[in-house]
Design goal:
single chain; three-stranded antiparallel beta sheet; 2 helices; 27% strand; alpha+beta; 250 residues; 2 domains
Length: 250
C-alpha cells in the first residue's frame, strides 16, 4: 500500500507540472517563432534505508518541438522567416548571446535593430546592429542588412551589417527562462555560422503549437490527475479499514 500511495502521489505531482507546460504552450500559440515545450515522466527508485518499495514519478524536460511553424506572408521588409535549423543571434538581458526564430524585426528611434521582444539583433562580430536614418531597408537572404540613405537614390545603397545567423540542431539548444535558446552544453564549441540562404523576407514563422492538440492533452492530464487522487483516497480508506480490523482483532 505504501508503494501505491507513493507512486500515485508523485504521479499526481508530475501531472500538475505537465499541465503547467501545456498551459505555457497554449499561452504562446500566437507568439512568432515559438517552439512548443515538451514534457514527460520517468520512474526513479528512491534510495535509502528501509524496504525498497518507493518509486518516484519524476517530470523530465525532453526539450522542445523543433518542427517549423506555419508561414505567414506579410510583405514587410523586416519580417523574416528562418530556414530549418537556423537561429538568429540576439543580445540577452545579461548582455550575453542567445538565439531566437522570431523574425519580426523593427528599428528603434535611436536606430537599433531589435526583435519584437526588444532584443538587439547581433552582427557577425557579436555587436548590436545600428541602422542609420534611411528611406528604405533591405535584408538579403544571407542576413545582410542594406539601406538607401534618406534623400538618396537607389545607386547609393550601402551595407550596414550582416545579422549573425547560426546553424544548430534541436539537440544543441535549450530554452532559458526568458524564452530564448542557448547551447545546451556550455562547454561545447561555438555554434557554426549558417552559410548560403538562411531566411526569407516578407514572411513570418508562426508558433508550432497545435492548439487543439494541446487542449486535448490538457484534458488527458486532468483526468490522469483525478485518477491518481482517487488512488490516494482509496489507499487511505483501505489503511483506515486495516487499522480498524487490527484494533478489533486485538
Amino acid at each position: 500500500m505504501d508503494k501505491a500511495l507513493y507512486v500515485a502521489m508523485t504521479g499526481a505531482r508530475a501531472s500538475l507540472q505537465a499541465q503547467g507546460t501545456v498551459s505555457h504552450n497554449l499561452a504562446n500559440v500566437d507568439t512568432k517563432g515559438f517552439k512548443a515545450a515538451l514534457a514527460g515522466t520517468e520512474a526513479f527508485k528512491i534510495q535509502g534505508q528501509g524496504f525498497p518499495s518507493r518509486v518516484d514519478a519524476v517530470l523530465i524536460d525532453p526539450g522542445f518541438d523543433g518542427r517549423t511553424g506555419s508561414q505567414m506572408v506579410t510583405g514587410r521588409s523586416l519580417d523574416l522567416s528562418l530556414q530549418p535549423n537556423r537561429w538568429l543571434a540576439v543580445q540577452a538581458a545579461d548582455g550575453g548571446t542567445a538565439y531566437t526564430r522570431n523574425g519580426e524585426l523593427s528599428v528603434t528611434p535611436n536606430g537599433q535593430l531589435v526583435t519584437a521582444g526588444g532584443r538587439a539583433v547581433l552582427d557577425d562580430n557579436g555587436n548590436p546592429i545600428a541602422v542609420p536614418p534611411a528611406q528604405s531597408i533591405d535584408v538579403g537572404a544571407d542576413g545582410t542588412v542594406s539601406i538607401i540613405p534618406q534623400g538618396e537614390g537607389p545607386q547609393t545603397m550601402a551595407v550596414v551589417g550582416r545579422m549573425r545567423i547560426v546553424e544548430a540542431a534541436q539537440s544543441q539548444l535549450a530554452r532559458g527562462g526568458d524564452g530564448l535558446m542557448r547551447p545546451s552544453d556550455p562547454q561545447a564549441p561555438a555554434l557554426a555560422p549558417a552559410t548560403g540562404n538562411s531566411l526569407t523576407v516578407g514572411v513570418l514563422e508562426g508558433s508550432n503549437v497545435d492548439a487543439a492538440g494541446a487542449l486535448v492533452q490538457m484534458i488527458q492530464l486532468q483526468r490522469q490527475f483525478e485518477m491518481q487522487v482517487k488512488v490516494i483516497r482509496s489507499g487511505d480508506e483501505m489503511a483506515q479499514s486495516s487499522n480498524q480490523l487490527l484494533r478489533l482483532g486485538g
